Amino acid sequence: MDQNTFLLMAIAVAISSVALLMQALASFGLYKSVRRMEAEIRPLIPEAAKTIAQAQKTMTTALAQIEELSAKAHEVLDSSKQNLDAFTATRDEFTGRMRVQAERLELVIDDTLSRVHDVVGVVHKGVMTPVREVSGVLAGIRTAFQTFLFNRRPSVERATHDDEMFI
């Protein structure tokens, strides 16, 4: 073997040895640090166990209360849905009845208006037409009497409303 090769191998072995020594020192330092942390954490373990147990009890109680509230909420929702359905049915029935009553009222109003219209026509034909005819006859008779009795014609100055229409 050549001396260069031997020297190279010796350097490689020396570097390996230094690396192993450094690794051993780092492992020893890590061991010491873990022991120190264990000493600091060991008194906290019982308190942590108490806290975990208490948290577990609280979670169990909270879960029971949440399940109870959930059941009550479902009951309230079911009741609300039933009430809403009943209200909707009542509203629909009321709307239907109001629609029927409105149609009936419209028919009654139409019938009443047609009867009033018929009565007005009868009154107009039966009362107003004869009253006009009698009024016309009386005006003719009055004019005839005035003409025969007074035998003079009224002047334009003394013209009446009926006379003004013919002037």
Structural description of this entry:
- The protein is mainly α and 167 residues long.
- The chain has one domain.
- The chain is built from three helices and no strands.
- The longest helix is centred in the middle third of the chain and has 107 residues.
- It is rod-shaped and about 180 Å long.
Write down the overall geometry: rod-shaped
Helix content: over 70%
Q: Give the number of helices.
A: 3
Mean pLDDT across all residues, rounded?
87
| Total individual domains | 1
Beta percentage is: under 5%
Compute the separation of the termini in Å. 165 Å
Low-pLDDT stretches are: none
Radius of gyration: 61 Å
Strand tally, please?
0
The secondary-structure class comes to: mainly alpha
What is the string of SSEs from the N terminus onward?
HHH
Describe the sheet with the most strands.
none
How do the helices and strands line up, and which of them pair or pack?
Elements: H1 3-41, H2 44-150, H3 161-166
Summary tags:
single chain; mainly alpha; 0% strand; 3 helices; 167 residues
